[in-house]
Amino acid sequence: MELLKLTVKPWSSCLLLGLFVIFAFLASLSVAEIHYHEFVVQAKPVKRLCRTHNSITVNGQFPGPTLQVRDGDTLVIKAINNAQYNVTLHWHGIRQLRNPWADGPEYVTQCPIRPGQSYTYRFTIKNQEGTLWWHAHSRWLRATVYGALIIYPRLGVPYPFPMPKKEIPILLGEWWDRNPMDVLKLATFTGAAPNVSDAYTINGQPGDLYRCSSKETVRFPVVSGETILLRIINSALNQELFFGVANHKLTVVGVDSSYTKPFTTSVIMLGPGQTTNVLLTADQAPARYYMAAHAYNSANAPFDNTTTTAILEYKSVPCNAKKGKSSTPIFPQLPGFNDTATATAFTAQVKSLSQVKVPTVIDHNLFFTVGLGLINCTNPNSPRCQGPNGTRFAASINNVSFVFPRINSLMQAYYQGQPGVFTTNFPPVPPVQFDYTGNVSRGLWQPVKRTKLYKLKYGSTVQIVLQDTSIVTIENHPMHLHGYEFYVVGMGFGNFNPSRDTAKFNLINPPRRNTIGTPPGGWVAIQFVANNPGIWLMHCHIDSHLNWGLAMAFLVENGVGKLQTVQPPPLDLPRC
Ligand code: C2O
Question: Which sign, positive or negative, has the C-alpha torsion 545, 242, 177, 45?
Answer without folding.
Answer: positive
